[in-house]
Amino acid sequence: MADARSLTDLFGILSPRRVGEKAAVVDTSVAQVTEASYPTKALQKFLGGLQGADNPLLLDLGPVVGSNVTFFGEQLGCRIRVEDIADDLDRHVREGKLEQLPEYFAKRFTQEPGSVDGILCWDILDYLDRPAAQALATALCRLLKPEGCLLGLFSTAETPGQVYTKYVVVDESTLRYRTYPALRHRQRSLLNGDIIKLFKDLRVTDSFLMKSKLREMLFRKPATRA
Amino acid sequence: MWKRDESVKPATPPAQTPAAMPSAPVAAASAVSEPRTQLGRDNVNIGKSVIIKGELSGSEDLTIEGHVEGRIDLKDNVLTIGPNGKIKAEVFAKAVVVLGEVTGNVTASEKVDIRDNGSVDGDIASPRVAIAEGAHFRGAVDMQRAGAKAQAKPGAAPAAGQAQPQPQAQKVGA
């Protein structure tokens, strides 16, 4: 099992490694800050998945976005926990401790297992190496309640610049992508199969390939059988 | 013990008395400077050099530019943490505006507003929360809508209405 490697892993090994992460310096000439709005299909379904829950707990793995907090708080009456994984990643890059990320993610979350109704994973997995991505995905699966939802975005194309993206919810069907400088490039694009393997404890309920070259995937944790 | 800051010209005759200041059962206070009455309203300013350790409570709006550790209880008033303010405390107020740093849980019955460069490290419980672009926040937000919904539906409508037009929400953007 441990030796099982997907094609993307092998390509990742063969292709030249991206430079710059060891230096932990933001190349501002490359890290252009941009902003554009794109349609989303999965968000509406994600929100629908949370509607039934009473005072649901939502975990947002992106940087804090004030209007998102307002949106989710007022639309859904959610309790929102913001856990900025990009910030964690930058810190590990800065300290040259990227190899410690899997261990870090395994202990990162303090919430009780099965206590979170929804997770906004956004595209953070695109920035992680396979072991770290797996550790994070496993931790998220553990946190999710049965019938809980996870929304993940995955890039299907190379992204120019060393940037993270803040996803600002404009409304249920529109996201504004706002980039900001990152200390690490997006890593290789994950294939469908890789993503499904990462979240093997979850069920894929919807998957959309958007014109923005992002794949939006909605996962749900199967209900436990009595 | 308290004296008014003469440099601040009150718009109305300064009628505040020391008795009107927040009662502060302060356990330990070093370098206590004077709270200032501003603009003749019930608004008290705790200056940059003030360090308070203990419980701070009162019935006036309060602006803190100094350091406070412990607990702040202004249930019916507005608490403003100024750009120089550093708070390590559990905070309870009607509304909280953060321009400085807060470490600790913040509970407001009306609104929490974290402005640009403001920082909150702790959980927020309030029906309305605004976090500006450039603000730092780490923790959880509970907007307590479920309770409000269950109690009174008429209350829910204005809350949603208030949220829409906010120019802050635009700035809040992310």
Q: Would you give an account of this structure?
A:
The complex is a heterodimer of chains A (226) and B (174). With 226 residues, chain A is of the alpha/beta class. Chain A has one domain (34-220): Vaccinia Virus protein VP39 (Rossmann fold, 3-Layer(aba) Sandwich), CATH 3.40.50.150. In chain A, 30% of the residues lie in helices and 28% in strands. Chain A contains 7 helices and 9 strands, in the order αβαβαβααβαβββαββ. Chain A has helices at 7-14, 42-51, 66-76, 85-94, 101-108, 130-143, 192-198; strands at 35-39, 57-60, 79-82, 116-122, 144-155, 163-171, 174-181, 203-209, 214-220. Chain A has a 6-stranded mixed β-sheet. In chain A, helix 3 (66-76) links the parallel strand 2 and strand 3. In chain A, helix 5 (101-108) packs parallel to helix 6 (130-143). The longest helix of chain A has 14 residues, at 130-143. Chain A is globular. The model of chain A is unreliable at 1-5 and 7-26 (pLDDT under 50). Chain B is mainly beta and 174 residues long. Helix content of chain B is 14%, strand content 45%. The N and C termini of chain B lie far apart (44 Å). Chain B has a 6-stranded parallel beta barrel with strand order 7-8-10-13-11-9. Chain B has 3 helices and 13 strands. Classes of the chains: A alpha/beta (226), B mainly beta (174). The A-B interface holds A 54-55, 63-70, 73-74, 76-82, 84, 166, 168, 176, 178 and B 114, 128-133, 135-147, 149, 159-160, 163, 169-170, 172-174. Strand 3 of chain A pairs antiparallel with strand 13 (136-142) of chain B, so a sheet runs across the interface.
